[in-house]
Amino acid sequence: MKLTVIGCGYLGATHAAAMAELGHQVLGMDIDPDKVVSLNAGRAPFFERDLDDLLAKHTATGQLRFTTSYAETAAFADLHFIGVGTPQKPGEMAYDLSHLFSAVRQLAPRLTGPAVIVGKCTIPVGTAPQVIDILREFAPAGDQVDVCWNPEFLRESSAVEDTLHPDRIVLGLTGQGTRAESVIRQAYGKIIESGTPVIVTDLATAELVKSAANAFLATKISFINAMAEVCETSGADVQLLAEALGHDARIGRRGMRPGLGFGGGCLPKDIRGFMARAGELGADQALTFLREVDAINNRRRERMIDLAREQCGGVINGKNIAVWGAAFKPDTDDIRDSPALAVAQKLHQLGATVTVFDPKALDNARKAHPQLEFTDHPLGAVRDADLLLHLTEWPEFARLDPEAVAARVAVPRVIDGRSTLDPDRWRAAGWTYRALGRP
Ligand code: UGA
Question: Whose C-alpha lies nearest to ligand 1, atom 9?
Fold first, then answer.
């Protein structure tokens, strides 16, 4: 099939490459010319495992191309996926849908024949009908343009795998037996044939599935982090608690790792955008618990600062603090709402000299936080440090020899914000080891 993907960020670029891998002819469209140059050269403008291989493979044969032109995009195919960003509005809880509406307004007047528009971006419930209104107003093809909402559940760091092997496909349709349904079932043919469940819904339910999924995931993380707070006051160990809880199949271990909490471009803004939308709909009471989910998450960052202060003898001002990790989670260079950088920034404001190392996110972190110190080696970060903070759990940190690290610091004190360092090994090497939620 021929298809296009409009908006080529983390979601769109991965979707475009994955669709090419499924055998389709794909044109990716983005308004950022630098991004398009990079993608056409087979390189993602961000780090995502396996994505460059896929981009290089399919741009080399011409099966996958990228453009900045809406005219070319509209002419290329009659199946268009939309994957533009829907960030949080600055200073507000609600989503900024301007990129979505702008993309649809640009595309609509160029739709002169039957077409299917598939929305993939995360949106507040009730947005798809607004997309349909724009299409009805501006598309010459009128009601020959069908709309489907098909939320994406990929995680950064396993985006390619999640896109090619999703655990479910949700199709929100305007009615039964629409052209959109048969076209999209054909596009995802190989995935569906491999046994992936397809859930067909109305538009509103499909929009809500994504909001509800991220709200649940955020709640699960904040639940275990709330338990960490209780552990901290009662002398219990939240890691053992999580393990014991996780054996109950109804609770499960996955997505319930205690630590410094969630960040990134999705969970924090999605729970806020969901609350804002519920308020507009008059259902705000249903989601007030998400306010607490957000608050618990932010308190983990404060707790890390308090522990750091305690470990520094009550005074942060003037101390050398090493920070391992800048990305919001391992295996990405994404620093949006990164808990690690939030802590690093706060310690800097409190007067510490903060030196940060991250395997992939240094460039992004440097641009966003020029006031912090950066180094391109984990051992460089700890030179003469009064305290080491382990804030993003890249596997390489756990593999480092704590004795070699101890030889470089001023004082061997570490706080493990993600509990993936081995306390026995670090203590045996002379470290004072502390972790969130553990005695
Ligand atoms: C999240 C969802 O997991 C995806 O299903 C969804 O498609 C995506 O948002 C989106 O809306 O686009 P992502 O933000 O890539 O994906 O990352 P997660 O792996 O969910 O991690 C989010 C944050 O929670 C990270 O900061 C991570 O360190 C933290 N986390 C995750 C925990 O603190 N504990 C856990 O057990 C899991």
Answer: 266
pLDDT per position as a tens digit, 196-231: 999 999 999 999 999 999 999 999 999 999 999 999
How far is the C-alpha of 313 from the C-alpha of 410, rounded, in Å?
14
Q: Say if residues 310 and 377 touch (Cβ distance below 8 Å).
A: no
In sequence order, what DSSP letters do the residues of 303-344 get, joined into one string? HHHHHHHHHTTT--TT-EEEEE--SSSTT----TT-HHHHHH
CA 35 – CA 9 distance, rounded (Å): 9
Contacts of 270 (CB under 8 A, 6+ apart): 122, 210, 211, 214, 215, 218
Structural contact between residues 80 and 3, judged by C-beta atoms closer than 8 angstroms: yes
Atom of ligand 1 nearest to the CA of 265: 14
Question: What pLDDT score was predicted for residue 122?
Answer: 95
Establish whether residue 215 lines the binding site of ligand 1, counting it when its CB lies within 6 angstroms of any ligand atom: no
Sign of CA dihedral 323, 327, 332, 333: negative
Task: List the domains of the chain with CATH numbers.
Answer: 2-196 (3.40.50.720), 211-294 (1.10.1040.10), 298-435 (3.40.50.720)
Low-confidence ranges of the chain (pLDDT < 50): none
pTM more than 0.90: yes
